[in-house]
Amino acid sequence: MANKKISELTAKGTAIAATDLLEISESDGAGGYVTKSVTGANIIGSKQDTLISGTNIKTINSTTILGSGDLVVGGTEIGALIGGGIVVEVFNDNGVNKALVASLTNLSTGLQWTISAYQSSTIGATAQSFSDGLTNTNAIIAQTGASAAITYAAGLARLYAGGGFGDWYLPSISELHMCYNSAAIVNKVLGVNGFAFSVNYWSSTEFSNTNAYIRSFSLGTQTTFSKAANAIYVRAVRIHTI
Question: Structural domain boundaries of the chain?
Fold first, then answer.
């Protein structure tokens, strides 16, 4: 079996199998490199021990090797382009490493929170989470009694399919706060497609029968706006397992 270079696999987002034979390059100490082989099993079965720089971490051409000899490939950080979008936060969910990924562009520069028929109606607890934007978004759509539509923020975000993924949604107010905190890095990567710093963005978190939470990216604060407001930006997010 021919060797696969780790850089080629990670660049293409190719899954690594336990049976794969992979190449890494290590400095030979004399200005050159020595090619070595490892198996995919060493990568996908790697331990997540506490890492201490200079003690049990060694970097070889941007590939990290633990002191135990296990290999970890393709570390994910804020600003990384994965999962159809850009990483704004990374976290561990019950032992599973995940990333909050934002869409690569604003989906709208001005849209109402929900359709006009429900702009004065309370959804309730299922749309009032500060952390679970997907549940909020689904509840907003369910209240309309119809399939998601691009005519309002939650529907537009839920229908977005960046990267071929179908689990995008309107961020909760806390998830939107994560987007704001990472905006400077995101904008260095995306340039004109980054977050706008002079506008407000919708969250999916309901405040009352008439208002929902927004975050001002110009002031760095959160407040509430009328669900009927149509000058609010929309950015979608999703959770990507890494």
Answer: 4-72, 81-241
